[in-house]
Amino acid sequence: MARIVGGIGTSHAPSIAHAYDRGHQNEPVWKPLFDGFVPAKEWLKAIAPDLMIVIYNDHLNRFFFDAYPTFALGVAESFPGADEGWGKRDLPDLAGDRAFAWHVARSLIEDEFDLTVCQELAIDHGILSILPLLWDTPWPAPILPLAVNVIQHPLPTARRCYRLGDALKRAVESYPEDRRIVVVGTGGLSHQLHGERFGFLNPEWDNRFLDLVEREPLALTKYTHHEYMELGGAESVEMIMWLTMRAALGSNVERVYRHYYAPLLTGYGLLVLEPEH
Amino acid sequence: MSEIPGTHVFTGELSQQGYRLNRLSMTLTKSENREAFLADEAGYMERLGLTEDERNMVQRRDWGAIIRSGGNIYLTLKIAATVGGNLLQMGAQMRCESLETFMASRPGPKAPVRRD
Hints:
The complex is a heterodimer.
Chain A: E1 2-10, H1 14-21, H2 31-47, E2 51-56, E3 71-74, E4 78-79, E5 94-95, H3 98-110, E6 116-118, H4 125-128, H5 131-134, E7 143-148, H6 158-173, E8 179-186, H7 203-215, H8 217-220, H9 225-232, H10 240-248, E9 253-261, E10 268-275
Chain B: H1 12-17, H2 19-27, H3 31-39, H4 41-47, H5 52-59, H6 63-68, H7 73-83, H8 87-94, H9 99-104
Helix pairs in contact in B: 2-7, 3-4
């Protein structure tokens, strides 16, 4: 039987990808961010999952508003990196696991999550900005990308994202073959990237969110999108994707690692959890 | 529900209003389109059916006007990427500040002011 052995909540940001690609890891503004990922990377290396499920959002690189999916699952054999406007980054394609991916698609749809199933899915900074901070290349395991609409309102509710995580746990645990799986939820924490409120940060709320997602995640399902946007900035509504990861771990978790750093535009949060056995 | 000051929530209505601007930006995820755009911005946008107002706000690099007209920030960023700007510059402009002033307002260790 497949099972979930751990979860990671992490911010994603194009700025992380730029800093990584340009070799700014040791600049004073970036060093605490890159150093902060090291314990999570070591944990991931030690736990060595067979596959990683990543809940993320595409930033108009694969999907456009001509037809915008609320939830989309990648069932491809491999996932190339997207060209976001600066040219494609120098990173290898990611592998998929099609048998597992189709199992999850069937299970989630039977569980009434009506996904868009994608046989081609280019991956953007929603996954690739932070992946090289967690994994060395060549990528050591396949991924299963699950994209959520957190951009064009109406968005799925926080509660819906949490329930998706419940369903994801059932999907994993009904797979007959052995797989040890880590679930990653990306996005947030506080940031606003447009308008006169550009640059809004709220470290106090971010840290409260990190407390709640670990200990009291159901409380976070009661917040409206408007409350998330007011507390953390309009684009911080991505934080609801952490709830999918958290629900997939089951009710009780042990915290392995937590890190927070908010130097510029984004409250960068990082949380590593293991399900309690 | 009160409005959040300085914020344009990207609703379906705003997305419809900004569709032409956003479709332009989406084409800039291909390098051959970026080259064609840079070679003849006005012609490129006319072929995509942007209105005169929309073409003007792109040519003025008026990021705030584009956002108010329904440009999505992640898409509008692709225009900046194509013409050699970055998100920090866009943000400073939307706040009506210089990039230096904005960077000085950041809580973290002093970061270099970059314009690429």
